[in-house]
Design a protein that fits this description.
Length: 205
């Protein structure tokens, strides 16, 4: 079973990173405003499957390194921690602007929406780097990997879905909120601070 203390760190970190405006959240808001929330769910399903695929591949790949090359994993842990700190610094420095195109075609098919969501998740190199850096250190190879991975995936799927649904249903109101003052900047700073703390914790643990 996954360590409760580690899970208590993982959940708020992933939540703030997920809810921060990014490619998938902006896409969800754009589609929600242009074609409606119900049809946007097809994109969300594709995105969730894409994120799950990336997460599983990241954990299994790095878990193999952990088991067969423990010294290499020690280096990987430092590199992963440094990368998370780098992401956190970039989030702190982000200007916090959103570009939303509300003129998406209203006749787009369900299959196209599903494919768009899946490709958006799988083809994002930052998503791969993030999963490889963040997920494996929360896995204890001395315990059965599958239940731990299932718990982390459940947290990721629920968080991603709730975040995308919030953006899709929020529509114009959410867009106005994010455009007001420094709201996005402070969201980025909260998420960035958590990323830097987790990066330091993973590297030094």
């Amino acid at each position: 079973m996954i360590d409760v203390a580690a899970l208590a760190v993982f959940i708020p970190t992933f939540f703030f990173v997920s809810i921060t405006p990014g490619m998938c959240m902006t896409l969800a808001m754009t589609l929600g405003m242009s074609i409606g929330v119900r049809r946007t769910l097809w994109m969300m399903i594709g995105e969730l499957l894409g994120v799950a695929s990336v997460a599983v591949a990241a954990v299994l790949g790095v878990a193999s390194v952990m088991l067969n090359y423990p010294d290499a994993f020690a280096i990987l842990k430092w590199v992963g921690g440094a990368y998370l700190i780098y992401i956190g610094i970039n989030m702190w420095r982000a200007k916090g602007k959103m570009s939303v195109n509300t003129h998406s075609p209203s006749d787009v098919s369900r299959q196209s929406l599903f494919t768009q969501g899946f490709i958006t998740a799988v083809a994002n190199p930052k998503g791969w780097a993030f999963m490889i850096s963040l997920l494996p250190p929360f896995i204890d190879v001395d315990q059965t990997v599958a239940p731990q991975l299932l718990i982390l995936l459940s947290v990721i799927m629920i968080t991603e879905f709730v975040s995308m649904l919030a953006y899709a249903t929020g529509g114009k109101s959410l867009r106005l909120f994010l455009a007001r003052g420094d709201n996005i900047k402070w969201m980025n700073r909260i998420a960035g601070s958590l990323m830097m703390l987790v990066g330091a914790w993973l590297a030094l643990d």
